[in-house]
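ok so for the tutorial part 2 we go from a plain amino acid sequence to predicted structure tokens. step 1 is just haveing the sequence, like this:
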Amino acid sequence: MKTAASAPHTTGFLNTRVVTALAIVALALSWNFLPDFAVVLLGYIGLYSIVAVGLVLLTGVGGMTSFGQAAFVGIGAYATAWMGTSPWVAAQLGGLVGAQALPWLGLVLGLVITFVLAWLLGSITVKLQGHYLPLCTIAWGLSLYFLFGNMEFLGGQTGITGVPALVIGGFSLASPRAMGVVIWIVLLVAMWLMGNLLDSREGRAIRSLKGGQIMAESMGVNTALYRTKLFVLAALLATISGWLYAHMQRFVSPAPFNLNLGIEYLFMVVVGGAGHLWGAVLGATVITLLKEKLQDILPMLFGTSGNFEMIVFGLLMVIVLQRFANGLWPTLQRLTARWIAQPVQHLPPADPSLLDQRAIPEHGETLLAATHVSRRFGGLVANNEVTMDLRAGEVHALIGPNGAGKSTFFNLISGVDIPTSGEVRFMGRVMVDAPSRRYAQLGLARTFQHVRILGERTVLENVALGAHQRAHSGWLKSMLRLDRAEESALLAQARVQIERCGLGALADQPAASLALGQQRIVEIARALASQPAVLLLDEPAAGLRHLEKQALTELLRQLRAQGLGILVVEHDMGFVMNLADRVTVLEFGSVIASGTPAEIQGNQRVLQAYLGVDEDEDEDIALQSAEVSA
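step 2 — the prediction. this is what the tokens look like for a chain of 630 residues:
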């Protein structure tokens, strides 16, 4: 099998890694020759970019909007400023660690405070949906800003002066030129670490957050935990930026950490390209330079001083966002794609033994059983005393007219929803209030009535997400690229399932570019990547052409022969009757018939309720009509 790449690469004279290396070398060689003003400006761009990189992960990738990052910048700045200037700290710790170590203790203090506060705020905030999440970040961002200005030991509105310079190896970083080098080193290291994180199993889980909680949880992702960790990570990056800012400015006051700056950070991400790490740097550069130039040009145009730049700045942002809806970085990538290729990812040989392997259940073993399951939504009864089971090595079809409660029942037996009454037992365990990820851990995989995929990611990445539970490398391993062997095994497993489902030629294509029927097959391949014992398929044949349905039927027969239990919701009666071993029929949320396909086709109540046939109509005509309508 060929080595898997995380994204399709284009033909070009250079690749992005070479271009990045050349840009870094050019900046390093020219650094000492740049004018002081340019060096200071580059320092600020680096500081803003560090915060924006965290926001790319939080907002652009994770789908959580935050206006409060400036407050975390303030925590980093005030922690080190207080640690470096407080007489009490100097008396207690100065003799033990030395004055030069106090700024580093300030970094530790800022990170600890931010971690605790961000975890607390994040565990509450990220549970909110829609506009409530950004409103909440505005609220606590303002609260922290006013807190900085009202604490006397932090200097109140006056702030803290005389912040000591950083000293590394006996070399003082008092000058902006020296401090700027450290800022850009920190930025590049942060981007390398975050890039590694996104290019991993954990990165796929982070990207799945934007695709919706139901899909991510069904893949085994603990969405609440991941959202909180992402919130904390972005906050820690902002704190590091604040720490560097304090030692570059040598002065800290509340003014730079207000809501306006929080909005600007978000602007930087959106203008640069919300889903791209280098977009954060581009956005920070564009907005910083734009603000600087407007402050010089507008007073000359209007003949008076004022905040005219904010008005023009806002209008320009509207124009940029209308013209470049996805940001400037994707546009730049598209324009340079002919000359600059995406690098090929080199991975070690795949070792399947690194992934968790699931034992195949005994043929005929009951895998999933629902007993008298009901679900009520107020006065509406969606499912009423539904009892059915699924055994290893069989295809069980669940059919019924629209509104019969099939999708609701699917959600009840997969952890998406909780039964009002009754019991769901999976793999011998009673699943009381168990979330979807718990079902996934035990061996259940599913597709959805309305396709849920990561459209901008490749087919390979989408399918690899299905194998999330079979690997265990965490965030730190991913950042340091210590997960490469496991990643190789995951991508190899994903390719196996893609080939198995007949989409091998499309593995490196963006999933959104596929036809709807092909996207449904991607969902099936993703489900198979988890090596499930039970497969729930919600209308898998919808949108498929005749030959594609035949191929899907053959695939499901192979899976049945291998011992999988397959539960199918489908409206295509020809597909169902040619495939299913047993059929259960729902009407108005209740089971009206259950048996073999032949028994269901001969059941007069099914013909009445599902097919709309009167009792005195000829049965053969009814069945013929059923096949035609399917």
